[in-house]
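Task: sequence in, structure out. Protein: NAD(P)H-binding protein.
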Amino acid sequence: MEKTAIVLGATGLTGRHLVEELLRNKNYTKVTLFSRSKFGSEHPKLEEYLVDVLELENCKDNFKAHDVFCCIGTTKTKTPDKTLYKKIDYGIPVTAAKLAAKNGAECFVVISAMGADANSRIFYNRTKGEMEQDVMEKNIPNIYIFRPALIVGDREEKRFFEKVAMHAFKLFNFILVGNLKKYRSVKSQNIAKAMMQVANFWYSGPIIKSDKINELAAKYDDRD
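Result:
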């Protein structure tokens, strides 16, 4: 089956890997990106719209694809203003899901975070939880919400405390077994592969944590 895809957050750590996987995958004939900056490479299947992703409603006529992937997210350090933080981490995914439902998308995949809880007293966890809740209410046949623990990979911007945590998680991943597997760090490449796996092969979902992300990535590698 020939499919089309939309990616939000294509220039980020996970988004870039996802776009590369989509471009390699023969199932997809077109990959559309909505972002503020160019992806940085060209491909016959690649279509780019340079837009303000906080104003996705303005792109509703072009926001059409079989599969929609949302890899957008910020951090408390990068976006200390809570109003702007919510516009990014809640507003963009929910608007994308709304447009995806309106335009007949078959699958919507979004990256959330471990600890997401709409009833949490912690603003950041509550924002993610509210986003998940409102995305799930949209009329899309298949919705998958990824809740990774720490995402590891080579970022352009260096986050000191995150780098320290990455090294710590590498040391402790091997002792996180059984029910603790969900706390394991997960590579950005594995998230991208797992997103591809659920979009192309049925999965019960909708919530997918770090341990399942790694399992799904391995399945995608086996099929590749």
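The mean pLDDT is 89.
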